[in-house]
């Protein structure tokens, strides 16, 4: 059974998808804790499913590295097999990435390497493209630059706003994330091999 710590910053819709998938006794992964960089709304999902939570706000620390150390300590208490960044909007310090990688994955609302960064959906709309997408990647020290685990295209429709497009991308993102966790748990995806490729 693959144990997961999920890190969030907001509403936690991807987290909820994982929690719901894990309700199935056949699903080979369980969320053991949920962390955040603030008092995130998504903690409500964790509470509903009886999952412990923790938070570490960057503003409470004198440096990003000190914050990273504190966050890593809280993650490691749970000894997770996999850490999932799910709408986690802070860049992890290199020491944290090194400690957790390659068992550290992230979702991104674009078809990488297109539109990396915090505003992938807005950037796709601004660029006037006809399609964007969703990706699941292994986290490295770049910005959305790690090895791609899976991705899928999502059409940009005439009249789409950042909000309407993001809503459709989130549906695909959730499906990709749940499938990626399933494939990692079943050994169909080897994160170490993927990272060395």
Automatic annotation (TrEMBL):
It comes from Conyzicola lurida. Coiled coil: none annotated. It catalyses: N(1)-(5-phospho-beta-D-ribosyl)glycinamide + (6R)-10-formyltetrahydrofolate = N(2)-formyl-N(1)-(5-phospho-beta-D-ribosyl)glycinamide + (6S)-5,6,7,8-tetrahydrofolate + H(+). GO terms for cellular component: cytosol. Catalyzes the transfer of a formyl group from 10-formyltetrahydrofolate to 5-phospho-ribosyl-glycinamide (GAR), producing 5-phospho-ribosyl-N-formylglycinamide (FGAR) and tetrahydrofolate. HAMAP family: PurN. The record marks 144 as: Raises pKa of active site His. CDD domains: FMT_core_GART. This is Phosphoribosylglycinamide formyltransferase. The gene is purN. Belongs to the GART family. One of its GO terms (molecular function) is phosphoribosylglycinamide formyltransferase activity. Pathway: Purine metabolism; IMP biosynthesis via de novo pathway; N(2)-formyl-N(1)-(5-phospho-D-ribosyl)glycinamide from N(1)-(5-phospho-D-ribosyl)glycinamide (10-formyl THF route): step 1/1. One of its GO terms (biological process) is 'de novo' IMP biosynthetic process.
